[in-house]
Design brief:
With 82 residues, this protein is an all-alpha fold. It contains 3 helices and no strands. It has a domain of 49 residues. The longest helix is centred in the first third of the chain and has 21 residues. The chain is extended, with a radius of gyration of 17 Å. The chain starts with a helix and ends in a 16-residue tail after the last helix. This is DUF4395 domain-containing protein.
Length: 82
Amino acid sequence: MEDPASSEGIAVICLTISLTAYLAGCIIMGDLFSLMVALASLMVLFGFCIGCVVRERWLEWKARCRFGTLSADGCAINEPSL
C-alpha cells in the first residue's frame, strides 16, 4: 500500500457524504456511499487498495497537466507511442 492516508481520506469523505445524505433524508445516496466504503474495506483484505489506485491516477493526471500533455478538455495529447 503506497499511502494509507489517501485511502483513509477518501473513506472519510465518502462517510461524510453518506452521513449528510442520511441526515438530509436521501437514504439511497447514504446507502450507496456507505456501500462504497464497505466494498473498499473488503478489497483491502484481499490486497487491493482502491484508494492507492485513485491517488496514483490523480498524481498521474496532475503530472500530465503540469507538463502539458493534456488538452483543455482533459484528453491526452502528444502521447509518445510505445
